[in-house]
Amino acid sequence: xxxxxxxxxxxxxxxxxxxxxxxxxxxxxxxxxxxxxxxxxxxxxxxxxxxxxxxxxxxxxxxxxxxxxxxxxxxxxxxxxxxxxxxxxxxxxxxxxxxxxxxxxxxxxxxxxxxxxxxxxxxxxxxxxxxxxxxxxxxxxxxxxxxxxxxxxxxxxxxxxxxxxxxxxxxxxxxxxxxxxxxxxxxxxxxxxxxxxxxxxxxxxxxxxxxxxxxxxxxxxxxxxxxxxxxxxxxxxxxxxxxxxxxxxxxxxxxxxxxxxx
Length: 262
Known about the structure:
78% helix, mainly alpha
């Protein structure tokens, strides 16, 4: 009966972690088409920063704001469920994103109803507005991101998992902050540039210079946020240990270690 209770807790924990992982990944994919200005958000003039010889303003994809959360949950899954747990959720998420891609592609091809076009034919300034064009444009821009992101996501996720395990072998069960932040620093270097290159340069209309400008700012943001969110990783770790119980938690972590050695 006690073993059954531990199994149920383990299953429920993976379900919760996977749910947060998948939800944040899909939201980031479809919302990430908007590029926003950090300077405008903060009421600042364009900063024109010189970063490694590249002059850039602080422009980010809105999807980047929550993307580090995906990698935090990836690290937590890695900690308790090892290689199998990370790979499983990575491929499930990629499959769900691809499924969403096909559904959105089908929806944007459907002919709009005349009354819907008429009801939404004027914008807030009283100018003519083609809502179907807007709907199709926004979501199909998201589809371009998805094509690039599926590649970047899977590669960066697997890199993140292996780097996390590498640091874990060096530090044992100590220095959670090091393996969590270190794996994000490496994996996000891949993710930040691959997705922009495929989605906005290869499949879009950006120049390579614009790709490097935005990619560099996004990468720096992700690294800084990963460092800032380190306390959150510890809080989640403490909450999971309390939920599972110290003994069950240690067993899961040991199983995760053994899983990587197979």
